[in-house]
Design goal:
Blueprint: H1 3-11, H2 18-29, H3 35-48, H4 52-63, E1 76-80, H5 88-98, E2 103-107, H6 117-121, H7 133-143, E3 145-149, H8 156-167, H9 174-187, E4 192-199, H10 208-224, E5 228-235, E6 243-244, H11 246-257, H12 263-282, H13 289-301, H14 304-315, E7 331-336, E8 341-346, H15 348-361, E9 369-372, E10 379-380, E11 385-391, H16 399-406, E12 407-410, E13 419-423
Parallel strand pairs: 1-4, 2-3, 4-5
Antiparallel strand pairs: 5-13, 6-9, 7-11, 8-10, 8-12, 9-11
Bound molecules: uracil.
The site of uracil has 9 residues, from helix 9.
Length: 424
Amino acid sequence: MNLYDIIEKKRHGQSNTAAEVEYVIKGFTAGDIPDYMMSAYLMAVCINGADKDETFAMCKAMMESGDTLHFDSVVVDKHSTGGVSDSTSMILVPILASMGIDILKMSGRSLGFTGGTIDKIEVFSGYQADMSEKKLLEALHKNHGVIVSQSQDLCPADKKIYALRDKTATVDSIPLIASSIMSKKLATGAKIILLDVKYGSGAFMKSAENAVKLARTMVDIGRSYDRQVMAVVTDMDSPLGSSIGAKFEVADVLDVLDGKSSDLGNLAKFFACEIAGMYYKDQGKEIKRADIEATIDTIISSGAAKEKFFDIVKFGGGDISVVENLTKTKYSLEYKAKSAGYISRLDAYSLSKIVREMTDSAQDKASVGLRLNVNIGDKVNMGDTICTLHSNDKISSAIINALDSAVVISKKKTVKQLVYKVVR
Ligand code: URA
């Protein structure tokens, strides 16, 4: 096979055969294809797309590039395409685990402007997210739930390709994202998978239409491997939770587990309910949605979910005493409303960028965070606090200008629609 011809075909918008796609993925993973040729291929896919056969072939080759896990029990999984202030995994894992449903959450770190569950769970100092297969099985047996980092032996092709995509502006492509995510989900052996496909300024997919296309592609891939998969297309124009910054987002999680109502908690509960529904169906059990919702509410109000969360953290070696001191910082700066009206925009990308820039220049990076006092649609008076920036390093007041363009107050009330569409 001739790599130059494969790239040229794709550049002209033609389809490659499954064998050609496999040749590219395998060759690059083995180190036989140099970065410059792979970059050209990825850019051609980014610009001209890939058809269903090409996308499926890409996913298969990436999945088969490393180990795959197999479980005796039915294991469930959830994956987000990446967003800002999205800590749903840390809420739904203890909820499902408390219901006796085995959930293996293999997560990543922050990438660009998006947050990562592993950075958040590591707020509990000592937590070892890198677990062996033996330890992982032990965790499932003991707690029914575990949060781990992606094993080095799973989908090495994706790791290598993703690193190149990150450097060559080839991340936001539907076939590339779909094959990257699904190769990992299939390799982890989960039988039931819920995908949270985000759209908006704080997501890779900027439009809801493209997010729906991505969702459809991933669900179809999962189905072809006989997995129960559903995708929920959700809003990521504004941060999901009230905080940005690992420690502060953990504080958000604890608020939900303490019973405080929020968009973050509502979405996590919605996901838990959908996953539990798929699980019971797989077990041949007919359980009404209202009954699952009531069980989830009891698990939270009784404190069982919080206790389970701490059990999961402690199993990984994390120190739960850190919760005493999550949001206390030496310096803070309040940003106040410049007019009265309704909050119509809290731009997820811009807010995340502000926190990232503060973190980059801070000595004590872990101390940096932002806490929102308001949500989309809230009424505010001039001078009300919109958000507070925190850091153990001095905060420059110049940051106010950046916040001015991230926050919009309008005369008309806007309603946030958390769930745009469910794709099955
Ligand atoms: N997350 C992934 O794992 N892969 C992508 O391509 C994008 C987001």
